[in-house]
UniProtKB/TrEMBL annotation:
The chain crosses the membrane at residues 21-42, 69-93, 105-125, 131-158, 170-192, 477-497. It is a multi-pass membrane protein. The keyword Transmembrane helix applies. It is found in: Cytoplasm; Endomembrane system. One of its GO terms (cellular component) is cytoplasm. Keywords: Cytoplasm, Glycoprotein, Hydrolase, Membrane, Transmembrane, Transmembrane helix. InterPro entries: GP_PDE_dom, PLC-like_Pdiesterase_TIM-brl. SUPFAM superfamilies: PLC-like phosphodiesterases. This is Glycerophosphodiester phosphodiesterase domain containing 5. GO terms for biological process: lipid metabolic process; positive regulation of neuron differentiation. The keyword Ligase does not apply. Residues 207-465 form the GP-PDE domain. It comes from Sinocyclocheilus grahami (Dianchi golden-line fish).
Length: 579
C-alpha cells in the first residue's frame, strides 16, 4: 500500500492543500540535510579513531561511537529517499499528496534528530567540518556531474507541471527557479579547484608513509609489535608520542593516563586515573599493553589476526624511547616524536628535554635520523646535538623557519593547502601531513606535492601506487562542456516532448475524455486548461447525443458527486444550451 494517499472524488480545501505542500517541503529539507550529514560521515572515516578517542576522554569508557551514528544515518537516509521517490512519482502523475500521519511523525523526528546531530558535532568536533571542504577538492568534479544528472532528470517532472499548468505566477516562478538552478550547475566548475586537476608530467614522487604510532590498526599502538608491523609495510619512518616517567625514563604513551591502553586498573586500581608520568619505569614496565586491543578491538581488525599474532599481542608491554630508537637504527629508519612535558609538580618538569636528549645520544641511531619536534629549548637542543633534523608542527613563514633552523613541517591535513606546500617545497622545507588514512586523502596530498604523510593505516596506503584520479585542465574542461551540452539538449527535448504530447492529447478527440478523468481532477485546487477542455467536450458530446446536461448532472448529484466543482460543469452546460 502506498505511503501517500490519493483523494479522487472529494475536493480538498485550500488549507489542506497548503498543509500537504508544507509536509512535502519538510520532507525535502530532511532529505537534503541527511544527504549532507551522510556525506560528512562518509568522508570523516579518515578520523573515526580520533572521534572515538575524544569520546573516551569525555566518558572514560572506550566505545565505537560511529556505529550507532552510521546505522541511524543509513536508515534515515534510505527512508527519506524512498518517500522522496514516491512523492515525485505522485507529482509526475498529477495526484494529490497526502502523507500518512505515521510517516509525518517519522519525517519530523528524522529532521529534528539530524539537526541535533549537526549542532552536537559542531560543539564536540567542530574542526572536523574541514574534512568536508577538503574532500570537495577530490569529489567536486564528480558530485557536479551527479547533481547535474539529477536536476536534468527532474526536468521531466517540472516540464509536466509547467506545461499542464494554467498560465499563472506559479508557473512562471516554478520555471524560473528550475532554470536558475540549472544555470548555477552549468557554471559551478568555474569555482571548482582541485590539486588533482593538473598536468600529469608535473606530478611529484609518491609521498613517503610514516607509521603513526606504528601500525595501530594491526597491533596495539606504541608497542614493539606495532612498529614491527609498520616496518613490514615498508614505511620510511616511525612516529611516536613520548612521556617522561617519574624517574626520568622516556616512554611511549598517547593518553594522559595509562587507563585505556594498559591494565593499570587491575595492578594499581587506586592510581588508574593518575597522570602516566607519575609512575616509575619499573611500574610501567610491569603493565600489559596488549590485552586492551584484543578486548576493545578499536579498528575491528582482531578477527583477521593469526593465532600467533593474537598470542603475541596478549604479551605486549609499554615501549620505551630507547627501544624504539634501537629498532629504527637496526632497520635504518627515521624517527619523529612529540614530547609531552610533565606537570609542574613532577620532579622532571625542568629536565624533560635533557632526559630525551640523553637517550638519543646514548642510542646507536644517527642524529640525522631523528626529527626533533618540541619548540622548547630548541637552541639548546641544536647546540647539544647539531645534526638533529629540526621540525615543527606550527605553520610559520619561510623566513622564520629558516631563522630557527627548521627544515621540515608536520601539519594537520586541514592546514596543508596546495599553494602553501608548493611555497615550502620551493624553499627546501619538506612537509609531512597527518593523519592520512584513506586512499582519497592520500591521493589528494600526493597531487598537492607533500613529501610524506603520517598514517595509522600504512597497510592500506601501500596499495595506492598512483593517485586515484588525475586529469589535465583541458580534459576537465571537455568533460564540463560536454556534460552541460547534454543536459541542455535533454532538458529542451523534455519540454518539447511534453508540449507535443499535450497538443496531441488535445487533438485526439472526444474519445479520450470520460467522467472518471474529470472527477480525478476534482482534487486539484485550481482546474487546469486541460480539465476545462475535458469538461466542455464532455458536455458538448452529451448534448449532441440528445442527453440534457442538467439531467445528466442530476445523476452525478444523486450519487454524491456534486462536491467536485459543480459550478465548473454547469457554466459550460448553460453556455451550450444558449448556443
Amino acid at each position: 500500500m502506498s505511503v501517500w494517499r490519493t483523494h479522487v472524488f472529494t475536493s480538498l480545501p485550500v488549507f489542506v492543500f497548503q498543509w500537504e505542500c508544507s509536509w512535502f517541503f519538510l520532507l525535502c529539507c530532511s532529505f537534503l540535510l541527511l544527504l549532507v550529514w551522510s556525506y560528512f560521515w562518509l568522508e570523516a572515516r579518515n578520523d573515526y579513531n580520533e572521534f572515538n578517542w575524544l569520546l573516551y576522554n569525555r566518558s572514560a569508557i572506550w566505545k565505537d561511537g560511529t556505529v550507532p551514528i552510521l546505522a541511524t544515518t543509513l536508515t534515515g537516509f534510505t527512508y527519506t529517499a524512498f518517500l522522496m521517490i514516491l512523492a515525485l512519482c505522485h507529482i509526475a502523475l498529477g495526484q494529490q499528496l497526502n502523507l500518512f500521519w505515521i510517516h509525518k511523525i517519522v519525517v519530523l523526528a528524522i529532521l529534528l534528530s539530524t539537526i541535533t546531530g549537526v549542532v552536537s558535532i559542531d560543539d564536540f568536533w567542530q574542526d572536523e567540518w574541514d574534512i568536508v571542504i577538503i574532500s570537495l577538492q577530490f569529489t567536486g568534479p564528480f558530485l557536479h556531474i551527479g547533481a547535474l544528472a539529477a536536476v536534468t532528470a527532474l526536468g521531466w517532472v517540472i516540464a509536466n507541471q509547467v506545461v499542464r499548468m494554467e498560465r499563472s505566477r506559479l508557473q512562471f516562478v516554478t520555471l524560473v527557479i528550475y532554470v536558475s538552478i540549472l544555470l548555477v550547475l552549468y557554471l559551478v566548475p568555474l569555482f571548482i579547484s582541485s590539486p588533482c586537476i593538473m598536468d600529469r608530467s608535473k606530478l611529484g614522487p609518491r609521498p613517503a608513509v610514516i607509521g603513526r604510532r606504528g601500525a595501530p590498526m594491526l597491533a596495539p599502538e606504541h608497542t614493539i609489535m606495532s612498529f614491527s608491523k609498520a616496518l613490514q609495510q615498508k614505511v620510511t619512518a616511525l612516529e611516536a608520542d613520548v612521556t617522561i616517567s617519574l624517574d626520568g625514563v622516556p616512554f611511549l604513551m598517547r593518553d594522559r593516563t595509562l587507563r585505556r591502553t594498559t591494565n593499570v586498573g587491575k595492578l594499581f586500581p587506586a592510581r588508574q586515573d593518575h597522570d602516566a608520568s607519575f609512575f616509575n619505569w619499573t611500574e610501567i614496565r610491569s603493565l600489559n599493553a596488549g590485552l586492551w586491543f584484543l578486548r576493545d578491538d578499536p579498528y575491528w581488525t582482531v578477527q583477521y589476526m593469526s593465532e600467533k599474532d593474537h598470542n603475541r599481542t596478549a604479551n605486549q608491554t609499554v615501549c620505551s624511547l630507547t627501544e624504539l630508537l634501537r629498532l629504527a637504527a637496526r632497520t635504518n629508519r627515521s624517527v619523529i616524536f612529540s614530547l609531552r612535558r610533565p606537570p609542574p609538580q613532577h620532579p622532571r618538569h625542568q629536565l624533560w628535554v635533557s632526559d630525551a636528549l640523553k637517550v638519543i645520544q646514548r642510542s646507536s641511531i644517527l642524529p640525522e635520523q631523528v626529527m626533533w619536534t618540541p619548540d622548547w629549548y630548541r637552541k639548546k637542543v641544536r647546540a647539544a646535538v647539531p645534526l638533529l633534523q629540526q621540525t615543527s608542527d606550527e605553520k610559520l613563514p619561510v623566513a622564520e623557519l629558516k631563522e630557527r633552523g627548521i627544515s621540515s613541517l608536520t601539519l594537520h591535513y586541514s592546514q596543508a593547502r596546495a599553494q602553501d606546500i608548493r611555497q615550502f617545497s620551493g624553499s627546501n622545507v619538506s612537509v609531512n601531513v597527518y593523519p592520512v588514512n584513506e586512499p582519497w586523502l592520500y591521493s589528494l596530498m600526493w597531487c598537492s606535492g607533500v613529501q610524506s604523510v603520517s598514517s595509522d593505516a600504512p597497510h592500506i596506503l601501500k596499495k595506492v601506487p598512483n593517485p586515484i584520479w588525475i586529469m589535465s585542465a583541458d580534459e576537465y574542461g571537455l568533460i564540463w562542456i560536454t556534460s552541460d551540452l547534454i543536459s541542455v539538449a535533454t532538458v529542451i527535448g523534455i519540454f518539447i516532448f511534453q508540449n507535443y504530447h499535450l497538443i496531441r492529447w488535445k487533438m485526439s478527440g472526444m474519445r479520450s475524455y470520460n467522467p472518471e478523468q474529470i472527477m480525478l481532477s476534482a482534487v486539484v485546487r485550481r482546474p487546469s486548461r486541460d480539465v476545462n477542455l475535458m469538461k466542455e467536450k464532455l458536455i458538448f458530446s452529451e448534448i449532441s447525443n440528445g442527453v440534457g446536461s442538467t439531467d445528466e448532472l442530476s445523476v452525478y448529484t444523486e450519487n454524491g458527486l456534486d462536491a467536485y466543482a459543480c459550478d465548473d460543469i454547469m457554466m459550460p452546460a448553460r453556455h451550450a444550451s444558449k448556443l
